[in-house]
């Protein structure tokens, strides 16, 4: 039996291949570990992947635009630690501190973009410096203690099951649909791709380069802040370092989904199965009782291998 050219084209897409890989790993793991493929366990994996997926929304936009955001982990922590501190009396919904913390993380992302667009600081240096600054500030503010929120909206986000589906997954689905719409349908999405493909050509074509850079880093700050709110809802506590696992995970999910680390190519549709695959791999490591050290080694090796693969693809272009 021969495959039609259209079917071959679909199967050759990295996003489709990553999704098929997730399904294959799930099926294989179900034979190895009883209960791995149970509906409740797969739903739990998706709940964990939702946090990575939210962080990776902003990271996908930034990488496609030719940059990288190393401050997302610190921004997740900022949201989880600052939200309880922004609570106001008389706010029965808990919406005010959530909006406040999302505005705060978006503003920090905007500062990242300002340093990159106007001061011409390399994205890696700018966002790493911002992450270091935020980590120091968080240690001064929160110290080593955990902060417990008393926020109805955050508690609902972490525990509600509308129609049996965790609210965090529904939030991820809604944000993913919006991200795909913005990236592939709107003029802003086209400008992000143009910026990542060739900044000089984009500038000569009339793309507002500084404004686009500001927007993608502000979006990354917003997405990381939203993930921090979800982390706070899931954990019930915010503390310094709670966002640390999501830096490498967000980058790995983006690259696993087929987005070029050199910018200009990719889609969030690939990042979604990339995030799920990372969580699945982590669950498999947990099944065989691998230590956290081995998990870090695996993530680092995976990212290095994918970066090398992206480099080979770029060299062939």
UniProtKB/TrEMBL annotation:
It comes from the Bacteria. InterPro entries: ABC_transp_permease (IPR001851). It is a multi-pass membrane protein. CDD domains: TM_PBP1_transp_AraH_like (cd06579). Its main location: membrane. It is found in: Cell membrane. The chain crosses the membrane at residues 12-32, 44-65, 95-119, 126-147, 167-190, 211-233, 245-263, 270-288, 294-311. The keyword RNA-binding does not apply. The keyword Magnesium does not apply. Keywords: Cell membrane, Membrane, Transmembrane, Transmembrane helix. This is Ribose transport system permease protein.
């Amino acid at each position: 039996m021969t495959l039609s050219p259209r079917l071959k084209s679909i199967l050759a897409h990295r996003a489709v291949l990553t999704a098929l890989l997730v399904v294959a790993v799930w099926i294989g793991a179900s034979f190895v570990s009883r209960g791995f493929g149970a509906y409740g366990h797969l739903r739990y994996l998706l709940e964990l992947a939702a946090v990575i997926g939210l962080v990776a929304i902003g990271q996908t936009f930034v990488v496609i635009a030719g940059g990288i955001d190393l401050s997302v982990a610190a921004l997740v922590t900022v949201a989880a630690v600052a939200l309880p501190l922004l609570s106001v009396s008389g706010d029965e919904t808990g919406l005010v501190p959530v909006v406040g913390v999302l505005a705060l993380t978006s503003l920090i992302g905007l500062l990242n973009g300002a340093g990159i667009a106007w001061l011409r600081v390399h994205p890696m240096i700018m966002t790493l410096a911002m992450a270091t600054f935020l980590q120091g500030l968080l240690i001064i503010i929160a110290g080593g203690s955990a902060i417990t929120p008393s926020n109805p909206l955050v508690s609902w986000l972490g525990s509600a099951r509308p129609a049996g589906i965790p609210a965090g997954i529904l939030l991820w689905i809604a944000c993913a649909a919006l991200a795909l719409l913005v990236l592939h349908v709107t003029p802003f999405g086209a400008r992000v791709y143009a910026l990542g493909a060739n900044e000089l050509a984009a500038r000569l074509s009339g793309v507002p380069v500084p404004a686009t850079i500001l927007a993608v880093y502000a979006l990354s700050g917003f997405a990381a802040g939203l993930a921090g709110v979800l982390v706070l809802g899931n954990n019930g506590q915010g503390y310094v370092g709670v966002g640390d696992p999501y830096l490498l995970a967000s980058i790995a999910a983006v690259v696993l989904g087929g987005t070029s680390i050199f910018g200009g190519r990719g889609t969030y549709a690939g990042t979604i199965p990339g995030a799920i695959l990372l969580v699945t791999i982590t669950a498999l490591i947990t099944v065989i009782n691998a230590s956290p050290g081995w998990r870090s080694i695996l993530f680092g090796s995976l990212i290095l291998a994918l970066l090398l693969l992206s480099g080979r693809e770029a060299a062939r272009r």
